[in-house]
Amino acid sequence: MASALEDPILIRNFKGHKDAVTSVAFSPNTKALATSSLDRYLMIWNLRPNSKAFRFAGHMEGVTSVEFSPDGQLLASASQDRTARLWIPCVHGESTPLKGHTASVRSVNFSHDGQYLVTASNDKLVKVWSIYTQTVLFTLFQHTHWVRCAKYSPDGRLIVSCSEDKSVKIWDVRNRICVDNIIDCDGFANYVDFSPDGTCIACAGSDHTVKIWDIRTNKLLQNHQVHRAAINYTAFHPSGNYLITASTDGTIKIIDLLGGRLLYTLHGHEVSCC
Fold first, then answer.
1. How is the beta sheet containing 105-110 ordered, strand by strand?
2. What is d(CA 266, CA 81) in angstroms, rounded to the nearest whole number?
3. Cβ–Cβ < 8 Å for 67, 28
């Protein structure tokens, strides 16, 4: 992290999508950036100066999520066309659809070993797919409203999902059952992420807050009210000491979790309203 008291500065701006950008993901070697958009396309940007970007077509409706596999050999995407897709991130952009959901797919996430993919959908379901066979292995169904996000724990033994039913559920992958249920009466979580050690989760809320929960005790550890609008994304720093959030208010925040304070506010995105 930067040691200066001033905010970090914007060093590069990517323009190519024709509608809202919904997700961004670095490749494991950090040499490329993948983006998804409501314009129905994925784009892969080479981070070297003056390099070309590649646009991938395949989805019939807006793309809501994108993620590289841990080895960087595959790219997964989710779409409003009710499918997820697996892509080979090369010039040709070949892809295979994963069909099984009956409504918009909201998120995709690879297991740490890259063998499985978990998807969350507006059909209220969470599905786990085999990358090798490209088929559904099992479905998790206890949410009563749209599921916004589902993520694997770092060790692959758990899945966390969040829904507009205002619940965050922890699932045992091996037994395929819900082992914990966190209810937030203040709003629903748009996005969830596991801490690097797998003991905590961060929930990005529609109520403008980001909350840190200890899943071993089901205890709320921190509650940060740093945005003026819904928070759409959150992620832990690899050290587990910092948290980044992105909001509809057009800002990105970096939170110091050890000090329990806001560290930086990043500006640069234009918003029409909050």
1. 105-110, 116-121, 126-130, 135-140
2. 33
3. no
Q: Is the pTM of this model over 0.85?
A: yes
Cα distances (Å, whole numbers) of residue 126 to 77, 108, 139: 15, 10, 6
Distance CA 97, CA 249 (A): 34
List phi, psi (to 5°) of 212: -110, 120
Amino acid at 7: D
Q: Tokens 């559920």 identify what position?
A: 169
**Token pair belonging to 130:** 């085999």
Structure tokens at 120: 């969350």
pLDDT per residue of the chain (274 residues) written in tens, 0 to 9: 444 446 688 888 899 999 999 999 999 999 999 999 999 999 999 998 888 899 999 999 999 999 999 999 999 999 999 999 999 988 778 899 999 999 999 999 999 999 999 999 999 999 999 999 999 999 999 999 999 999 999 999 999 999 999 999 999 999 999 999 999 878 899 999 999 999 999 999 999 999 999 999 999 999 999 999 999 999 999 999 999 999 999 999 999 999 999 999 998 787 754 3
CA–CA dist 25, 44 (Å, integer):
9
Burial status of residue 12 (CB atoms within 10 A of its CB: 0-12, 13-18, 19 or more): exposed
Q: Where are the alpha helices (DSSP H) in 43-202?
A: none
